[in-house]
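Sequence in, structure out. Go.
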Amino acid sequence: MGVIERYRDRLPVGPDTPELTLGEGSTPLVSAPRLSAQLGVELFLKCEAMNPTGSFKDRGMAVAVAKAVEGGAVGIVCASTGNTAASAAAYAARAGLPAIVLHPAGGISLAKQAQARAAGARVLEVRGTFDDALRASMELAESGGYVLVNSIDPNRIEGQKTAAFEVVEELGRVPDVVALPYGGGGNTCAYAKGFGELGARPRLVAAEAAERSDTLASAIRISEPVHRSEIDELVAAGRAEVTTVTDDEIIDAWRALARSEGVFCEPASAAGVAAVRRLELEPGSLVVCVLTGHGLKDPAAVDLLATATEVVDPRLESILEAVSGTSFTSSGARTAAGWKSREKAPTSCRATAPISRCARSRSSPIRRTTTSASSTASRSSAGSVRARPRSRPVSSPEPPPPSSSPTPTPRSFSASTSKGTPTISRPRCAAASA
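Output:
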């Protein structure tokens, strides 16, 4: 069940709106006991990485593309730092529409670009910034036929507000604090709208990068937020606040999420956690941090921010020598200053998707429900290391003379596909009635 079917009565859809879905929404709310203990609060993580294309964008994209189909669009267009591109391409393919994606040249991770290309989108790299790509996308949409599906489209905000509904449904109450990354500002507006429709006023914290145009967190690398005026209005009305975090703070939060809680997100997703670390909160406050994208969206970050791998011999002594004195919670990683050339770095890494539990407070009156997720792993073949071959005995007899018989034809082998293509299952949270 997607967001259109689940929240039809709260969305601007009608009988002619197709129920376009890839199964978006109903993402897990994961308790973070170790970070909770460190911060003195009760912290939960809204894992939006478990949406179909790996980011929160899918909620709004389902509604935006469905409305484009309803309106007779010939195609869709978007500007993107990566996640919008992947989502737009996937939902356009689902709807049978062509998609055009514009992104700043060299400004997004190869993994995100690969998602858009695999789904058949026409991906164009613009010589300029994200803002330049957005202006060009708007011009194309205004020329007729193509619908712009960036968050300027109010249907995107409508779809993304459903995450706020789920947070309240899962917790059984309104959280005291909700923190999330602030790039273009659309998601902050969406959460404010969702909570507003519920009559709720949590402390909404939007975390922006100190160096917006050059931050390591590519998903929020937007120098001029398109929703800045709306965010300013929310701040003036006391409905939101903006907290600035440095790249080093983002790195520390990203590492803490993976190593303390086992949740692997892209660096930008950790901005909300970095912001919460800056806040002065009442002990025991109920806090939700929104993790907007999966770690596999930006695998190059692992090579640059995490401990490097090491090749060892397959002997106990060699393994013990390698791990002796190793702290498995230490970083062994670079600072933000050494991270800036990330797009040109090798992308070899081994990363594991988070194993999530849909958790609630012990004191929550609603029924406990748990879900499980299968894990995924990937390794770049370009950066893999060949194992050293075992040496052969030197005491071998004199080799026989060459045979005059013809060289046998090598046998060909084909991979069996009898078991089918493996699929990735996404955990679902059973929503309690609000």
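Check: The first helix runs from residue 3 to 6. The longest strand covers residues 203-209.
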